[in-house]
Amino acid sequence: MDRILSEFIVSLRHAGVRISVSETLDALQSVRLVGYGNRDTLRDSLLAALPKSDREKEIFSRCFDLFFSFDHFAGADAVADAGLTASRPEADSPLQKALLDGDQAALVMAMRDAAREAGLPDIQFFTQRSAYALRILDRMGLPALDVRLQAMQSSGAPGSAQQAAALEKARTFLVDNVRRYVEQQLALNTPTATEDLLTSYLRHAKLSMLEQQHFQDMHLIIQRMVKRLNDIHSRRRKASRRGQLDFKKTLRRNITYQGFLFDPKWKRRKIERPDLVVLCDISRSVMRTVRFLLLFLYGLNKAIIRIRTFAFCSNLVEITSIFDEYPVGVAVEKIRLGADLPILMGRTDYDQSFRDFKANHLDSVTRKTTVIILGDARNNYAEAQTGILKAMYERSKRLIWLNPETPSFWGTGDSEMKKYAPFCSVVKECNTLHHLEGVVTSLVHHRH
Fold first, then answer.
1. What is the pLDDT of residue 376?
2. CATH architecture, domain defined by 225-445
């Protein structure tokens, strides 16, 4: 592959642009057609081949401007001309020759080769700048140039002082350009390191403690997680349609072809969609966790999962139709505000909410249904209605309770969690994005 294009794609990936093998091949073909002669044409062709979303296009523009900035060793001619005015020293290495000749192309290629050997594309932190600059300079031949410079400075030969001054100026020019190049590579990689740290923090931060300014970042992280789950399921469906090779049927079928396997037969396995019934406590103490769980679930492809959703506080109502009418983000915001919903946003009442579900929706729970209840089980000292929960547990395939509180608080005060736990297939603490991802992944991968 074209070395320059390969390095640019690595920089894009470090910056957060997802680039597949097929897109890399498209970019390679584009470069073969347009070449590197016209910067704007090159930019447009790569822009059409590599980034996909608006965010990736912004990253591409920044990376392109940094990577294809042709100002490295600009002014090399002036340095060479200054050396000619003095008595020019004889060059005894390729580096010295390129510096004294003002050969910008040779200097750039030598620096890029040395940077690749030094592992510069892996730089992430500003504290690494000096170390990488020294490695690059060592590989370019700076130690030999320093030895030559010291010999000139200590020599008493005629003109040696002028030659040493010319070489010293060329050395300073070299060091300054290498440092700028390291700074440029750091600028290419720094957003990725920062984003990775932020993503790691947000994945494990308590959802109830998140500030509003992080919500957009959380939505982007969830979108990436959902896309990964959708991709995994798509591959599973392709494998399911094809199945595994059935040797016995294949051999029997191909007897007429004298053993040549012209007509292979496959073992087929049907992957069924999980049926979910989700009950969400939308009181203030739980709403943020509910928000992100619903973004997760409704971001999944409808081919993966079927969902009926209910919200409750002082009573229970079905909210599935809101997700049918509005995009996921808008629907979640409407639920949070309680807009146009016949729900009473008073004290949380699991007693009344469970009785509402039994009266109007219990028939929706079958042996194929997974019931998810997201709530802190704090019932304000009302009846726990464990009998209704038991009926839901017995009718369902499994019942999962997700509690945003840590287990040490279960059963304290008005919490009824210890009364509800015996009638749940799974009880999990769920108060971070990492917890939510684990729950949703287990739902998608669960054998039905």
1. 92
2. 3-Layer(aba) Sandwich (3.40)
